[in-house]
Amino acid sequence: MPSTTRRELMAGAATLAPLALLPVTASAAAPEDRVVRARPLPLADVRLAPSDYLTAVEVNRAYLHRLVPDRLLHNVHRYAGLAPKAEIYGGWESDTIAGHTLGHYLSALALTWQQTGDAELRRRADYIVDELATAQAKRGTGYVGALGRKRKDGTIVDGEEIFPEIVRGEIKSGGFDLNGSWSPMYTVHKLFAGLLDVHAAWGNAAALRVATGLAGYFERVFTALDAARLEEVLGCEYGGMNDSYAELSARTGDARWLRMARLFYDHRVLDPLAAGEDKLANFHANTQVPKLVGLARIHEVSGGDPAKAAAARFFFDRVTQHHSYAIGGNADREYFFQPDTVAQHVTEQTCEHCNSYNMLKLARHLWSWQPDGALFDFYERAHLNHVMSAQDPATGGFTYMTPLLSGAARDYSTTKDDAFWCCVGSGMESHAKHGESIFWEGDDGTFYVNLYIPAEARWATRRATVSLATRYPYEGEVALRFTELRGGTFPVALRVPGWAGDGARVTVNGAAVTPTRARGYAIVARRWKAGDTIALTLPLALRTESAPGDPDTIAVLRGPMVLAADLGPAEGKWDGADPALVGADVLAGFGLRDAAAARYATRGVVRPGDTDFVPFYRQYRRRSAVYFKRFTDAGWAEAEAAYTAEQARLRDLAARSVDVMFLGEMQPERDHQLASELSYPVTYRGRQGRDARSGGYIEFTMKVRPGPLVLQASYWGGERARDFDILVDNVKVATQHLDNDRPGAFIERDYPLPLGLTAGKKTVRVKFLPHDRSSAGPVFGVRLYTARAGATA
């Protein structure tokens, strides 16, 4: 299984049972002759009213205006033999994955135009499409794009040159590298999807022509491969190519594109899911989610494909129920872990935003087949707590990860626009469309309200205008009013979240009514007329939820909103012990301090001291704690000394750390300029690492600072006998012998560095070199930290 991450070197991871999601099984699949039963109101017919969601859309709109289309088009022009019109952006856009942002940008432009009517964004999208069409015509093959390819000498050239090699059977594929290009089909998919989004938004015919030309090019590439070579290529991340091909088939009515959609099928990952087996552990999470979104779309476009529908449903159920955190996000360091082990993975590398971006897409598909409020219980959870936390409203920047480790600060992309991570792309899309899932209509005439976000919408079917007024989730009342309506009898279904239990109340025009309760909805069917108002009141009592894997690792929630202990500003240093909750009834120690802000003060239940609890998503530039160890008074007295000592040790080590290298993970290896031969990423006991075989090596750069330093490496304690050297700037500092030193546990070994080895330097190169007929590692992490005062080497 792949063990590298998308943040890793190219050459070469509380179940949400408290969400009360209903089990998702193949038997729940919609009938083959009618796979879609409900549809959202068009985004262009929804306008948001003031709220944090509208703020996010407007901040994102300003960000889209800030970007320069010609900079994103730089490689498109250059590789087509046209003169670039502006310099290229930095970050990922200057690497071989260049072009993925352009596709996201097209989608975000189209979505924001639909959400706001901003004419400049439509003009930009049309301009980009015209430039792509010109470059495509200049190439003459149907291909167009910006992705690069790194040759052996390190130069980056037009990435198209890898595809004739692949057709010839010359394939070198890894988890994120295909013939020297970083996830090329992932990048192609983003452009493909962006073109289709522009076409869908206002019927830009050129966008569909460019997309069709691109589709034809890759049809020739992939149909030239036999089954074995195809599977080898699909071992490299390919995004949602199956989704885009299925969508192209739906737009054009051409069955050849549906056949292509089915061709993008990674048997290693998808066959177990179709068989109802959870073998997700150690797979890169977001590589997999788009594949299931694609299967869902194939199911819809084909008129019914039960096997693909079953795989999508099973995957969604397993991820949301057994692999996700309280905020709705999933994965640690980008990888799925063993099911129901969330409590073991509360780290600073949790919850890649792209994962939730794609999980929300999958939820929409599943819900449209068979409306069930439980699906939107998850959607609301992830949308509010994860997606909304991933944008900094002060700068428009985006997170890659949303850390849940106590005291960790969020790392946002900057106003210099020099990152362009994958999550910058999915972020600019996510915050373009907060109105897309509020209102839905069923084939049976039911009007559904799935999200409680202040908004007004046109409902064309009934020639109606509806408004939704609320301060939810800060207040529990939601009021839906038909300001205009062609009168008639139909059901209105308001989602009642699973956590609300029997506490929800419904009124019509101020009078209490008893709704029908079905599939997570309060349903009122009557003859509605203009001016009618139906209101829902939900209880917002505090509750706790345990993390899977440990009933005494808990989070605190208020309605759908995850609360966090406020640990202070991000720019300030935080070196305290992880907060713990102590007492027989910890919630009894919470008092509402500011109802409008959902801020709670604690009294006597937090150790080491009381703190305020606030909405997690709003902790943009603050440090937070989300998960807490829970103790009884007696249990805390027994555990306090050991707990405090261990926390102090870890904090001390973190404070003295100069640099940390996570081997086997893409971005850390890229950031530390890893070089290697006969070296392979590994995953063991939920941890990523890397080894080097006889004749090979692992080498990378680490920062240093003046004074005595210690190099620390982590290994698995049960390794068979092996010997290897550790060198710093080609000076051997230690020879390590491993031979079942501590079975059943990871171990750390420290190597003090001579002062003269680092004096006057800012960085050093660290190398792991195996002895003849032996291997080095696997190494599961390397840290450089300052020795304690008085230590010498």
What does this entry look like structurally?
- The protein is α+β, with helices and mostly antiparallel strands.
- It folds into 4 domains: 17-430, Alpha/alpha barrel (Glycosyltransferase); 439-537, Golgi alpha-mannosidase II (Immunoglobulin-like), CATH 2.60.40.1180; 542-638, no CATH class; 658-786, Sandwich (Jelly Rolls), CATH 2.60.120.260.
- Helix content is 31%, strand content 26%.
- It has 20 helices and 37 strands.
- Strands 18, 19, 20, 21, 22, 23, 24, 25, 26 and 27 form a 10-stranded mixed β-sheet that branches. A 7-stranded antiparallel β-sheet has the order 2-9-10-11-17-13-14, with no helix packed on it.
- The model is unreliable at 1-33 (pLDDT under 50).
Q: Notable features of this structure?
A:
793 residues; alpha+beta; Glycosyltransferase; Immunoglobulin-like; 4 domains; ten-stranded mixed sheet; seven-stranded antiparallel sheet; 20 helices; globular; disordered N terminus
Q: Percent of residues in helical segments?
A: 25-40%
Note the overall shape.
globular
CATH topological fold name of the largest domain: Glycosyltransferase
Uncertain runs with pLDDT below 50, 5 residues or more?
Answer: 1-33
The CATH top-level class label of the largest domain: Mainly Alpha
N-to-C terminal Cα separation, in Å?
41 Å
SS strand fraction: 25-35%
CATH-level-2 architecture of the largest domain: Alpha/alpha barrel
Radius of gyration of CA atoms, rounded to a whole number:
27 Å
What is the count of helical runs? 20
Mean pLDDT, as a whole number?
92
Largest sheet: 10 strands, mixed
This entry's quaternary arrangement is single chain
Output the structural class. Answer: alpha+beta
Number of DSSP strand runs: 37
Q: Indicate how many domains the architecture comprises.
A: 4
